[in-house]
Design goal:
The protein has about 160 residues and is an alpha+beta fold. Helices cover about 35% and strands about 20% of the residues.
Length: about 160
């Protein structure tokens, strides 16, 4: 004699799970279609300080950071140091090459009134919030601002960032 087992799963949890999936998909679609509020917030925030910088690889493997207006050296990252600065510049230059933009053009470093620090590449229209990479890494670039810089010691190899 064969014994049949009647297995029944309550419908309420299945209905709730289906509703949750539908709500998640709807939320993602609405978020993707709506304008990003972060960009409008950046437009409204006043720039507290800015500096135009040019980054150049030297023949000895170091990275030289120049004030684009005065051509004065702001900092030098010795070979094998400051991985964040090097990685950031490698990525920015790769984007410039892809867009056939000038590799020698300066980038704009801005500190906004709310404390946010941005690196803006006007050649490619790329804007990076440096604090998103961590405060230690952002501090490497903050040191290039005139209010933060110590021109007596322009070597950035001892400052934050992973080497």
């Amino acid at each position: 004699m064969e014994h049949k087992t009647d297995i029944r799963f309550p419908r309420a949890p299945l209905f709730a799970a289906g509703l949750l999936i539908a709500a998640t998909i709807t939320s993602v679609v609405i978020a993707r279609m709506s304008p990003s509020p972060a960009l409008t917030d950046l437009v409204k925030t006043e720039v507290a300080e800015s500096r135009s910088l040019r980054f150049e690889d030297a023949s000895d493997g170091s990275v030289h950071v120049y004030d684009a207006q005065t051509e004065e050296i702001v900092a030098i990252a010795a070979p094998g140091t400051n991985g964040f600065l090097r990685g950031m510049m490698r990525g920015m230059m790769r984007t410039r090459k892809q867009n056939e933009a000038s590799l020698k053009a300066p980038m704009l470093l801005e500190r906004l009134a709310n404390g946010m620090v941005l690196l803006i590449d006007e050649e490619t229209k790329v804007t990076l919030d440096l604090d998103a990479y961590g405060h230690t890494n952002a501090d490497v670039f903050k040191a290039f601002l005139k209010s933060q810089s110590h021109v007596a010691n322009p070597d950035v190899s001892s400052q934050g960032g992973q080497g």
